[in-house]
Amino acid sequence: MARTRIPLDREWVAEQKKTELLASAVAELDLDVRTVNGLEEVGVLYVRELVELTRGELARIPNFGTRSVERIIQVLGEHGLAIRSDSISPARKKH
User: DSSP letter at 40?
Assistant: First the structure.
């Protein structure tokens, strides 16, 4: 984000950074190549898609172990993001 002499609202700046991060490729995160390749193999190309997954969904990705899942959670947390909760919301329950 460009520097300006006009003071910007911190919340607005934080929201802009979050929006930019969500639009970035998972390859831009500080993840190892094997983890990025695994995500890309199942069609998770962008951070916005990654944060929609649950711990269980991540664990079901071929060749993903506990360490891969924990590293994803850690890296997202460093950026103020998190994966979706494993609990099923009423709107997502299947009848």
Answer: H
Structure-block tokens of residue 90: 């009423």
Token pair for 18: 């979050």
The position carrying tokens 């193999």 is 41
Within 3-87, residue ranges assigned H as helices are 10-22, 33-41, 47-50, 55-59, 66-78
pLDDT at 18: 86
How far is residue 66's CA from residue 59's CA, in Å, rounded to a whole number? 7
What is the mean pLDDT for each group of 10 consecutive residues in the chain (95 residues)? 70 82 94 95 96 95 94 94 75 45
* Structure tokens that stand for 32 in this block: 């190892």
Tokens of 31: 């993840």
Structural domains for the chain: 25-85 (1.10.150.20)
pTM beyond 0.85: the answer is: no
**What is the C-alpha separation between 39 and 45, in angstroms, rounded?**
7
